Amino acid sequence: xxxxxVFVSGGGTNLENLxxxxxxxxxxxxxxxxxxxxxxxAVQRAQNHGIACVTVSREAFADExxxxxxxxxxxxxFIVLAGFLRVIPDYLIDxxxxxxxxxxxxxxxxxxxxxMYGHHVHEAVKAAGESETGMTVHxxxxxxxxxxxxxxxxxxxxxxxxxxxxxxxxxxxxxEHFPQVVEDVLKTLPEY
Length: 192
Description:
Blueprint: E1 2-8, H1 13-22, E2 28-35, H2 41-48, E3 52-55, H3 58-62, H4 64-73, E4 76-81, H5 90-95, E5 100-104, H6 118-127, E6 132-139, E7 149-156, H7 163-187
Parallel strand pairs: 1-2, 1-4, 2-3, 4-5
Antiparallel strand pairs: 5-6, 6-7
Helix pairs in contact: 1-7, 6-7
């Protein structure tokens, strides 16, 4: 079994979607949720499913010994970033080469990088007059949103769409495609 940790900062709809997708799998288990905020509703979602959850401060997240100890405790072999709003430190990227993916709410390389998350992305898409947007799943690298792209899915943006409309359209793509992309990546691992 490949033990997976999901890193979150917000509501956790993608977390819930992943939990439901892999429920009952004999190959993949979501064993740990790491949250940047104890107030994130994702924490409640994890608890509802009986999944261990730890909340880490910025200082704790920067502490390599502490974080690696937590991940080892749960036998974590793969990390999924699902709305996690902190920059991943080098030690974690080095410890999980090709074993950490991120979901970004735009078609990278457009609208990526520092400060480009959540509603900021959808507002930028609207301001740029884009005719389409979408989601990107990519490997995590030392460059924010700069890792190799695994999959992208797009949706049209109409001139009358608000940033909220754009967010809703993009979220539909996440719900439809993200778990399958994660599973496809996991299938490439030798232990799958």
